[in-house]
Amino acid sequence: MKKLLFTLGFIAVSAGVFAQDNMAGAAIGKAREKASFSRDFLVIGFSYDGWASAPDSVKTKGLSRGFHVALMYDIPISKSNFSVAAGLGFSSSNIFLNKQVIPMNNTSSNEVRFVSSDTYKKYKVSTNYLEIPLEFRYRQVADNANKGFKASIGAKVGMLVNAHTKGKNTLGGEKNIIKEQNKRFFNPWRFAGTARIGYGNFSVFGTVNLNPLFKDNTGAASDIRPYSLGIALSGL
């Protein structure tokens, strides 16, 4: 009887270990399959931002910067190395001015005025957009964007969801922050060209506005066109 119980117990333990090994193997297999398949569904970028075509009277300084994120659905083109992708994204841009401010509460005219001021130690103009990006893509490894060379060109349409200025100084020895939020000077829509080139999960990218940042009737600043140059991390 003891031998029979021992034999049955040994068989049960062996079966359990075998089942666990199979489950672990299946999990590892799925993880490997996931790691070997990627079409850049998620793209996150950090950029240096600037204003092209700005008049000489506009003074910027420091490291103006931006943040970009997009979830995109990738559609391969007939089993080739090419695909098209579209999705939904968000971008934020922060441009620092050098001893200048924009009076956002100016009600006497629609002109954007850059006024000299030493009031703030730091002063920035921020814009935030909800976007629809479109890309035409090439991947050296068609089913795995985590490997090999890749490149894309495209465009994106953005809707302005927030525009504000923020100034920082000290008042009575304490940090003082003044924020003015107003979209009336800014174009409500953004149309931009995009390009991205990289290897594996890392890329460099650039964007440039095809239309001005400010509305047509806002004076000398009405031809300013923002641009971004940065690095991107992509995957999934």
TrEMBL record:
Residues annotated as signal peptide: 1-19
InterPro entries documented for this protein: Beta-barrel_OMP_2
Domain of life: Bacteria
Domain (Outer membrane protein beta-barrel) ranges: 43-203
Record keywords, A-Z: Signal
Pfam families cross-referenced by the UniProt entry: OMP_b-brl_2
Protein's name in the database: Outer membrane protein beta-barrel domain-containing protein
UniProt source species: Chitinophaga alhagiae
Taxon lineage: Bacteria, Pseudomonadati, Bacteroidota, Chitinophagia, Chitinophagales
